Amino acid sequence: MSKFPEHFLWGGAIAANQSEGAYNVDGKGLSLVDILPDAKHGRREAEYHPRQGMQTVYDFYPSHDSIGFYYNYKEDIQMLAEMGFKVFRTSISWPRIFPNGDEAEPNEAGLQYYQDLFQCCKDHGMELLVTINHFDTPFGLFDKYGGWANRQVIDFFLNYCRAIFERYQDLVKYWITFNEINVILHSGYIGGALDIENEANPLQVKYQAMHHQFVASSLATKLAHEINADYQIGCMIAGAAIYPYSCKPADVWKAKTAERQNYFFLDIHARGKYPSYTEKLFREQNVSLQIEAGDLEILEQYPVDFMAFSYYASYVAADDESDKERSGGNMFSAIKNPYLPESEWGWQIDPLGLRIVTNDLYDRYQLPLFVVENGLGANDTVEADDTINDQYRIDYLREHIRELGNAIEDGAEVIGYTSWGCIDLVSAGTGEMAKRYGYIYVDRDNNGEGTQKRLRKQSFHWYKKVIATNGSDIENI
What we know:
Blueprint: E1 9-13, H1 16-19, H2 43-48, H3 50-54, H4 62-65, H5 69-83, E2 87-91, H6 94-97, H7 108-123, E3 127-133, H8 139-145, H9 152-167, E4 174-178, H10 188-192, H11 202-227, E5 232-239, E6 242-244, H12 249-271, H13 277-284, H14 295-301, E7 306-311, E8 315-317, E9 326-327, E10 334-335, H15 351-365, E11 369-373, H16 391-410, E12 414-420, E13 440-442, E14 454-456, H17 458-468
Parallel strand pairs: 1-2, 1-12, 2-3, 3-4, 4-5, 5-7, 6-8, 7-11, 11-12
Antiparallel strand pairs: 9-10, 13-14
Helix pairs in contact: 5-7, 9-11, 11-14, 15-16
């Protein structure tokens, strides 16, 4: 018998800014990523120095064409339906609806595109899980207003939310307000449309922007429920199990404080108040939030309906990091765990960590959970007969799904599982195509060359079986 609930939502996830392309088509404005080159040509430098990046003309912008999902979505959705997807997670590109972010009226061409996309998913029997802001604040709000550090952006966000909540009432049930909201700590530009290059205290700007996002998320939850009582609104963090390097008490405390840095985002969304430990945190970091009258009441009155999180790897924390070997990651590195293998990109592979995180979150909050990103970025080889043997990806996903099933058996309530990059797409961290996650191969390379042809990988057929058996058969094809 399956450990997964009868109506468990199996599916996959992509993001508009990593898949659509058509960056200046049908009235779309610039997204934050549209000024970023690939890793070889200074992506990280442009991300951390966006004004400089904005003024630089690069040879190649990965997001401008991406995998052409904007034009190819019907074929792509058909292939996902062939696998039996119960849910499809995607995002709406905010600048496709409000090109600069501050317009009074939405762009009809953008609204119609997502209506057609969502209807296509519904016609194939899929629920939709839609992220409202997936690292996709309009570049215009960065350039003109300073991004989420400016409280006025809350109103622009709510104007955008109203437009999409009203338009897609009959198509979308599940919404996530902000993708991996805690990423703002690691990338102020991507997470909050911030330019902190010349700030005396970057953390002051980041935490103030976070506060504005918390208020915006709560007000969006209120608005959503007013427009459609059946809407389910969730928050999301980049999740990870965090282990102490040793049983040395100082290492244990270091891991505890690192864990709190993630959990306080969820504490506010679920419990509606800043946790007590943030008072000391802000004092030590010389952060003084500007909290307007009524803000704390808004947070308390409008908590989320469910919690979503990504999970790719676990991390290790130590009181003394100076002599420790480090592992890789998208936006930050961490101390290497000697007990775990690594992916080609240096991410440590820890399926049991997913069980640990799922149990921790459910024990702490008692809210339904949704695993909305999980996957293995790897190089794939296309054989002469167009087959792709990605057994390494099957191995990764199989063991993570096994541990998620164990967490459900432990008592955690989990709504669904959407593995990341179900169709190969542009990497958010590096701008690469070679770092592939999908069940569906897209013929495009790191330089933007290729036919864009789609091919089914071995994992395509394996995941189809997993879904058909509701997770009771996760063994190899």
